[in-house]
Write a structure and sequence with these properties.
The complex is a heterodimer of chains A (246) and B (410).
Chain A (H helix, E strand, L loop, with lengths): L3 E12 L2 E12 L3 E5 L6 H9 L5 E9 L2 E2 L5 H5 L3 E4 L11 H8 L3 H11 L16 H15 L3 E5 L7 H14 L4 E5 L13 E6 L2 E6 L1 H11 L1 H9 L8
Helix pairs in contact in A: 3-5, 4-5, 5-6, 7-8
Chain B lengths: L1 H13 L32 H8 L12 E6 L2 E7 L7 E5 H7 L17 H8 L5 E5 L9 E7 L4 E11 L4 E10 L5 E12 L4 E9 L3 E12 L4 E8 L5 E4 L2 E4 L5 E10 L4 E10 L5 E10 L4 E10 L4 E11 L5 E10 L4 E11 L2 H8 L5 H12 L9 H18 L1
Parallel strand pairs in B: 1-5, 4-6, 5-7, 6-8, 7-9, 8-10, 9-11, 10-12, 10-13, 11-14, 12-15, 13-15, 14-16, 15-17, 16-18, 17-19, 18-20
Antiparallel strand pairs in B: 1-2, 3-4
Classes of the chains: A alpha/beta (246), B alpha/beta (410).
């Protein structure tokens, strides 16, 4: 059995006193790619923020282990330095902070920056731009992917890398992700599962109302969701026999 | 001469008139007894003076600047134009210039009114020189001119009156640094500056202030921009002081005239800072832009104002004012005002004041920056001067000063 990279144990999280994650358990082993499905507002992004340790996401109970170490109380920057790279869904725009500046901080070698910029096919002029200021949806995805590549961690978190991206850019991003996930573990949030065309995901989870209600084959779960919607998952929760597991 | 005595009379009537904005100062509490400084080459000045001058962008050597004017207290100690630029520009004290050119009286108190308030009145009644700079017709001056207004005496009142004339088709950059000796804590600087930007002329004026915690400053500036003229005014104040109030105005009088104000303020300690910029669009195609960035830390109180007035059709101006609070005891009050008096005057503004967004800090921490590194990066980004469109050398110098300030603060 391969070693466990990320382990989320009985995690419950509150934001401003409101419970948003309830007793979540998740175990991701080395080289495994996990996909997280769930309706809007079910807590998918919150789970990611909690794993990263954003203070707004207050951990009420449970713990998070990364590479065997309890990181529940570590600040975000120390967690990512242990080998986590993340692409956000809606990153904030920061005036005066250049994308190129962040990349340079992450990768001191100019050549490597050139390499990854070429891979993602984002015009070089973006390096001189204030990060996310006036970026289109597709440009944000590419800029996030660039930063993931620059971070170079062995555990990748992608929050909806495929939403709002046109066909051509999806192909580019898909190829980058596919290449990146070789020999790496990942947790990927996807709405419509488009990114699954490019990667081999091992396990999918369905998050509903802050709880993982189902885990199993990504293809089967996605098929079920696309055919019958999350209403089916709700029903499944009640009648455990309907599970669409492996 | 009759005109001169008329302005004296007006000044006398206004000498007790408080300014419309800012704390009212008792002007009798400052000393009118300066140290006496003899003219000398600037390189002969004491090292500590040169160091302070350098911190406001004034180089201690002539190289790198096309002309230099240096005044300490009430004495002009140096003024020279580099050989290469002698037929392009002239620089002298306004006293000298008024004696030399009879026409200069037509430029004296013509944009700024002598009876605006007690400070303009003071500058008339107790006038301590200042500089006259003229860029000759069609001359493009590629290297900046520099002027330093220095205070070396504790509790001194220094009142300068500057006149800048950019003749038709000329182009230049002027850097003015106002500062004081490290031993000086108190005092009052009043600086009247009148800018005349003639047809097709372009002037970039950068003023850097570096005062002391108990020092007061009351600049009073105005500019007239003729047809197709361009006036860019940059103001930078990164050090604490007791009080500062100014509200320079640019009149875009000519067809297609342009004015732009860029302001960077870093308020520290107990500083009371009230800085605005005003642009009046008076002719077809006039354009204006005001950009300001203010950071308030400690207990600083900052008022940041902007005023756009469209008096003519087919005019356009924008005002962008951002403030960042780094302390719960500090305050920023943003006051953007737009007045349209003609159809087709297109005026807009955006203003935003707040503390550093936690979301931005978290984002950068997720890239590996520590919290304090992330904050420093955001503050530095907030003060990014590249948006001002300055000449590259000047941009580098200003960014360096800002980096020192923000680096120290965080």
């Amino acid at each position: 059995m391969k070693e466990t990279i990320l382990e989320v144990q009985n995690l419950s999280v509150e934001v401003s006193g409101r419970r948003i994650l309830n007793d979540v358990n998740l175990q991701i082993r080395k080289d495994e790619v996990h996909v997280l499905f769930g309706p809007n507002g079910s807590g998918k992004s919150s789970l990611i923020m909690a794993i990263l340790g954003f203070p707004v996401y207050r951990i009420v109970s449970g713990r998070i282990l990364f590479k065997g170490k309890d990181i529940t109380d570590l600040p975000t920057n120390e967690r990512v330095k242990m080998g986590i790279s993340v692409a956000f869904q809606n990153p904030p725009a920061i005036r005066g902070v250049k994308l190129g500046g962040i990349l340079k901080y992450l990768v001191p070698h100019e050549e490597k920056i050139n390499d990854i910029v070429a891979k993602v096919k984002l015009p070089r002029s973006f390096l001189e731009r204030d990060i996310n200021v006036g970026f289109s949806g597709g440009e944000i995805k590419k800029s996030e992917m660039l930063q993931v590549l620059a971070q170079g961690g062995d555990f990748i978190i992608l929050d909806e890398p495929d939403s709002g991206v046109d066909v051509e850019n999806l192909r580019i991003l898909g190829a980058v992700v596919s290449d990146m996930l070789r020999n790496r573990s990942a947790l990927i949030i996807t709405h419509l599962g488009v990114i699954l065309q490019y990667i081999n995901a091992n396990v999918a989870h369905v998050l509903m109302n802050g709880t993982i209600v189902c885990s199993g084959s990504p293809v089967r779960i996605l098929g079920q969701i696309l055919n019958e919607g999350y209403a089916w998952c709700e029903k499944c929760q009640q009648v455990k026999t309907l599970r669409c597991e492996l | 001469m009759r005109e001169m005595s008329a302005s004296k009379d007006a000044a006398l009537r206004a000498i007790n008139k408080p300014a419309a904005l800012g704390p009212d100062l008792d002007i009798s509490q400052y000393s009118r007894q300066p140290k006496n400084w003899e003219p000398c080459p600037i390189s002969n000045l004491p090292k500590d003076i040169l160091q302070r001058a350098l911190e406001v962008g004034v180089l201690p050597v002539q190289e790198g600047r096309s002309a230099t004017f240096f005044q300490i207290d009430h004495s002009v100690i140096f003024r020279a134009v580099q050989k290469l630029f002698e037929d392009k520009i002239e620089v002298m004290s306004t006293k000298e210039a008024l004696e030399k050119y009879s026409w200069l009286k037509d430029y004296w108190w013509k944009i700024v009114s002598v009876d605006t308030d007690k400070y303009t009145a003071l500058a008339e009644l107790a006038w301590d020189q200042g500089y006259f700079i003229r860029i000759f017709e069609d001359q493009k001056v590629t290297i900046p001119l520099q002027a330093c207004l220095f205070i070396s005496t504790e509790n001194l009142n220094q009142n300068v009156h500057n006149i800048i004339v950019a003749e038709p088709g000329s182009e230049a950059q002027i850097i003015t640094g106002c500062t004081l000796h490290s031993s000086v804590q108190r005092g009052l600087h009043v600086g009247v500056t009148e800018f005349y930007i003639k047809e097709d002329a372009k002037l970039t004026f950068t003023m850097i202030h570096n005062w002391a915690q108990n020092f007061d400053s009351r600049p009073r500036s105005g500019a007239i921009i003729e047809d197709r003229g361009v006036f860019v005014s940059n103001y930078i104040c990164l050090k604490p002081l007791k009080s500062l109030q100014m509200y320079p105005v640019a009149y875009c009088k000519g067809v297609d005239s342009r004015a732009r104000f860029n302001t960077i303020i870093y308020g520290m300690g107990n500083s009371y800072i009230d800085v605005g910029s005003k642009i009046v669009l008076q002719n077809d195609g006039s354009r204006g832009e005001i950009i300001s960035r203010a950071i308030a830390t400690d207990r600083a109180q900052i008022y940041t104002r902007g005023f756009l007035q469209g008096e003519h059709e087919n005019t356009k101006a924008h005002l962008e004012c951002r403030g960042l609070l780094l302390s719960d005891e500090a305050m920023i009050y943003a006051v953007p005002e737009l007045v349209a008096e003609a159809q087709g005057a297109e005026l807009s503004h955006e203003a935003a004041v707040g503390k550093i967004a936690e979301e931005q800090i978290q984002y950068l921490m997720a890239r590996g920056f520590s919290r304090s590194e992330a904050e420093a990066l955001i503050v530095r980004g907030f003060m990014d001067v590249s948006i001002f469109g300055l000449p590259k050398d000047l941009e580098r110098e200003i960014q360096k000063m800002i980096d020192i300030t923000t680096g120290r603060a965080l």
